[in-house]
Design goal:
Elements: H1 2-24, E1 27-33, H2 39-46, H3 49-52, E2 55-61, H4 65-74, E3 79-83, H5 84-92, E4 97-102, E5 113-117, E6 133-136, H6 145-153, E7 162-165, H7 171-177, E8 182-186, H8 189-195, E9 199-200, H9 204-208, E10 215-220, H10 221-226, H11 228-246, H12 251-262, H13 282-294, H14 304-307
Length: about 325
């Protein structure tokens, strides 16, 4: 009975949301954000950019790339933040999903990520990571690719790194306790861990995967086929939000959103924001797919055109 009542309440709530959207003339959308690069979605929601483009968007906090993907495939939500690499591996396996816009990406000038170790670990270079455990946001999710390329460049077998999947908020404790020997972190978590006295071996992402999308907005092929206009409106709203995000005049407001959503003391939030772009950088993304194939991430070759909507913003 409780289950039936719960489902009835949920149905009533969903019906109410759809009714409200219909009365306002806005198209309802449900989206899920990741624990990183979430700021533009909340900006678009709070600043009215979604409404400006005719959308009534429900923004929900999500988890890792695979979990977010699963909710899109189940039809629970319309658009999700997932990782570029999860998109690639899923596409190679025939999963019917498409990226409609880029989100976070790796800038060659970025300083907001790196591989961190304890100062007493004895690890002073990437070559020292052979046989060590490294915490990554998701094994074979893309967060590990740059460090594997760095290992290759350092002359060690990338497979000699023992990867452990860790959510970003758990990385500092795992590193400090010795559960792992190193972590591959991005902001806002990278700055927090570095600020706690951990040593940075270098920003492998900026060095080995510049201009590659790290997170993207994705949806199912079925949803996209029926909602191309809504997808275009969503991308346009996100472009407005990214422009707001990048304006130095809004830095403190953006930092406040980061602190609120990540439940972090604002004093620990970096003032150097992660790089975000709605437009894909086609060549860098294509080169990355070649690297993923070479390192065995993909069960078959995947091209940029296989993965990305032909009406997605491009650079």
């Amino acid at each position: 009975l409780a289950s039936v009542l719960g489902l009835s309440a949920l149905a009533a709530c969903s019906s109410g949301q759809a009714s409200d959207a219909a009365e306002s003339g806005l198209t309802p959308l449900k989206i899920i954000v990741a624990p990183v690069h979430f700021e533009p979605a909340y900006i678009a929601d709070r600043m009215g950019f979604f409404e400006d483009h005719g959308l009534d968007v429900s923004v929900q906090p999500g988890a890792d790339a695979q979990a977010n993907f699963a909710q899109a495939l189940s039809g629970d939500v319309d658009i999700v933040t997932t990782s570029w690499t999860v998109m690639a591996t899923s596409n190679a396996e025939g999963v019917p999903v498409t990226a409609i816009a880029s989100n976070g990406y790796i800038s060659a000038e970025s300083k907001g990520s790196g591989v961190l170790v304890r100062p007493d670990s004895g690890i002073t270079s990437v070559a020292d990571l052979a046989g060590k455990t490294i915490g990554v946001q998701g094994v074979r999710s893309g967060s590990d690719l740059a460090v594997l390329l760095a290992a290759e460049d350092a002359g060690i077998d990338p497979d000699s790194l023992v990867q452990v999947a860790l959510p970003f908020p758990a990385m500092q404790a795992a590193l400090e306790s010795g559960q792992v020997d190193a972590v591959m972190a991005v902001d806002p978590f990278f700055s927090q861990i570095a600020g706690a006295g951990m040593e940075n071996l270098g920003n492998m992402q900026a060095q080995f995967t510049p201009d590659v999308p790290s997170t993207v907005w994705a949806t199912t092929d079925n949803w996209l086929a029926e909602n191309e206009e809504s997808a275009e409106k969503f991308a346009a709203a996100m472009e407005d939000a990214v422009a707001y995000y990048e304006d130095p005049a809004n830095l403190e407001e953006v930092r406040a959103i980061t602190a609120e959503i990540s439940q972090t003391d604002i004093d620990k939030v970096t003032k150097v924001l992660p790089t975000i772009s709605v437009a894909f950088k086609r060549q860098a993304a294509s080169d990355n797919l070649s690297a993923l194939s070479r390192l065995g991430y993909l069960t078959k070759e995947v091209t940029f055109e296989d993965m990305v909507w032909d009406r997605a913003p491009m650079n």
